[in-house]
Amino acid sequence: MAAKDQINGINFEQRHGKDRVRVGRVWRSGEDGRHFFVEWNVSISLLSNCINAYLRADNSDIVATDTMKNTVYVKAKECSKQVSVEEFAILLAKHFTSFYPQVTTAIIKIIEKPWERISIDGQPHDHGYKLGSERHTTEVVLKKDGALQLTSGVEGLALLKTTQSGFEGFIRDQNTILPETRERMLATEVSASWRYHFESISSISNQPPQFTEKYLDVKKVLIDTFFGPPKEGVYSPSVQATLYHMANVVLARFPDISSIQLNMPNIHFLPVNLSSKANPVIVKFEDDVYLPTDEPHGSIEASLSRIQSKM
Ligand SMILES: O=c1[nH]c(=O)c2[nH]c(=O)[nH]c2[nH]1
């Protein structure tokens, strides 16, 4: 997405912004002394009417990217009550689109670093955190007229199961050596993003949804569907089928989500068989000893979106 113009019969598209603005924010609860901490990595991109900067060395319509960076800290300071990463992205987008006449659209992406409250002897610590693994993400695209696209997501969600996975019936040709199997390891690192149905800023202004709770609920559904029940699990005939099932369950459970995109690399754990001329069987693979790998990996992604009813 970019601001579009036509200059001398040539299409011209542009946008500018500041990437990777890092901010940490502590909220201190007056009542029980508990602190709440978030760390965000914010990327801002503005579509604005500033073509004179490109064409005529006239910067009078430019919002300086340095100002964008400062705005992140100003808005973080102004948030006297704890806000979700989605609410923060929305309030930044609102500021840029309403304060500057030149700005037609603001695109705000934020990645939240997974600081988790630590527990000592089973008791949640008031101000101690440790770093977790997967990251909560959001992307807000807000136009001046209030049209909104709001996406939340998770990235770096590493999942692995040691059985209940197979891969059979695929195309075999002169280059195929992969054996068919109903018993293998399944490992992936899920990146998911889902779009909420809100189409305008006014539809969430009065009562912002509980975005953090929703994020945790969607993540739980993705994880539960991947693994199945604790004792028996659930069989995965392919990463493709498991991905589709996970996305479908999210759409079925959350009516306010209109689409979901999932990216699930197939991270391979290779069977270890060792032999030598003298000793043809040093190690025989019996679903027990693996060579973990990072690359190459299978790359599997899909998106599912509800078909809009024309009522
Ligand atoms: O679940 C899988 N999907 C594939 O497309 C694929 N390709 C492959 O070699 N192994 C697998 N596994």
In words, what does this structure look like?
There is one protein chain. The protein has 6 helices and 14 strands. It has 311 residues and is α+β, with helices and mostly antiparallel strands. The chain has 2 domains: 146 residues, Urate Oxidase; 156 residues, Urate Oxidase.
Structural class based on helices, strands and sheet pairing: alpha+beta
Mean pLDDT: 96
Question: What is the rounded distance between the termini?
Answer: 29 Å
What count of domains describes the coordinates?
Answer: 2
GO molecular function: urate oxidase activity
Binding site for 5-hydroxyisourate: 65-66, 167, 184, 239-240, 266
Active site: 18 (charge relay system), 65 (charge relay system), 268 (charge relay system)
Pathway: Purine metabolism; urate degradation; (S)-allantoin from urate: step 1/3
Considering the chains and any ligands shown, give keywords for the structure.
311 residues, Urate Oxidase, 2 domains, 8-stranded antiparallel beta sheet, two-stranded antiparallel sheet, 6 helices, 14 strands, binds uric acid
Strand and helix map with partners:
Blueprint: E1 3-7, E2 10-14, E3 16-28, E4 35-48, H1 51-56, H2 65-78, H3 85-99, E5 103-112, E6 115-120, E7 123-131, E8 135-143, E9 148-161, E10 186-196, H4 202-205, H5 211-227, H6 239-253, E11 257-263, E12 269-271, E13 290-292, E14 301-305
Antiparallel strand pairs: 1-2, 3-4, 4-5, 5-8, 6-7, 8-9, 9-10, 10-11, 11-14, 12-13
The protein binds uric acid.
Uric acid binds next to α6.
